């Protein structure tokens, strides 16, 4: 959803590029910072220090947002950078999900760890469905977007952690995780639909 509105952030991205490109930190170093912040978030999730977990998770997301802006601003948006950025995003996601597996989530329809697993499964499937389309030469146009992509997932997971600061039983956290699991897996199926539909229109099916 947010991906479709990306053009509306062009002005903000230019300002951020002007500001942060002055720092002696390369795009790949911002990518590394994103991973380190993700590890810190995992640790604080395990410790149930949710405010710190949210802070580091958002810092990880912001670092990931900045690295692309700076790479484009400095005109070094290379394939190697894009590859490392994508791989690091997956690792950060897994760090956060691993932390959540250690939370004492209540059983709501299914054990809490199952809902976390389903979100993790969807996060992998969303990326893989795009990569598989490209591998099979189905990306015409490139498969992007969907109902709950990574920016939405970061916001929703941060909200789920915030609910843990209000409700120590983690019931409301679990309900939000259930919602994220359903919507994320729907998005993974959307990516398959986008790939097949686009190629059927071009007579490539």
How are the SSEs ordered, and which strands pair?
Layout: H1 10-20, H2 27-46, H3 50-73, H4 79-101, H5 112-135, H6 150-166, H7 171-201
Helix pairs in contact: 1-3, 2-3, 2-4, 3-4, 3-6, 4-5, 5-7, 6-7
Keywords:
7 helices; mainly alpha; 73% helix; globular; 205 residues; 2 domains; Four Helix Bundle (Hemerythrin (Met), subunit A)
Characterise the protein shown here.
The chain has helices at residues 10-20, 27-46, 50-73, 79-101, 112-135, 150-166, 171-201. It has 205 residues and is mainly α. Helix 1 (10-20) crosses helix 3, helix 3 runs antiparallel to helix 4 and helix 3 (50-73) packs antiparallel against helix 6 (150-166).
Give the gist of this structure.
The chain is mainly α.
| SS summary, helix count | 7
Order of helices and strands: HHHHHHH
- CATH class of the largest domain, please? Mainly Alpha
Mean pLDDT, to the nearest integer, reads 85
Total strands:
0
Oligomerization state of this entry? single chain
Largest beta-sheet details: none
Please report which band the strand proportion falls in: under 5%, 5-15%, 15-25%, 25-35%, 35-45% or over 45%: under 5%
How many domains? The number is: 2
């Amino acid at each position: 959803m947010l991906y479709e509105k990306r053009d509306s952030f062009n002005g903000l991205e230019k300002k951020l590029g002007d500001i942060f490109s002055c720092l002696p930190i390369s795009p790949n170093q911002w990518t590394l910072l994103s991973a380190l912040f993700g590890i810190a978030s995992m640790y604080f999730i395990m410790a149930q220090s949710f405010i710190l977990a949210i802070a580091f998770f958002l810092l990880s997301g912001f670092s990931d947002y900045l690295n692309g802006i700076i790479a484009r601003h400095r005109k070094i948006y290379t394939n190697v950078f894009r590859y490392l950025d994508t791989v690091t995003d997956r690792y950060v996601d897994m760090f956060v999900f691993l932390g959540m597996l250690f939370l004492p989530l209540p059983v709501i329809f299914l054990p809490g760890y199952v809902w976390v697993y389903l979100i993790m499964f969807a996060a992998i499937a969303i990326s893989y469905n795009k990569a598989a389309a490209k591998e099979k030469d189905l990306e015409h146009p490139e498969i992007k977007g969907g109902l709950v992509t990574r920016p939405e997932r970061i916001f929703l997971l941060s909200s789920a952690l915030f609910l843990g600061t209000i409700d120590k039983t983690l019931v409301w956290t679990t309900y939000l995780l259930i919602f994220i699991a359903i919507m994320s897996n729907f998005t993974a199926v959307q990516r398959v639909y986008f790939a097949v539909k686009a190629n059927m229109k071009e007579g490539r099916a």
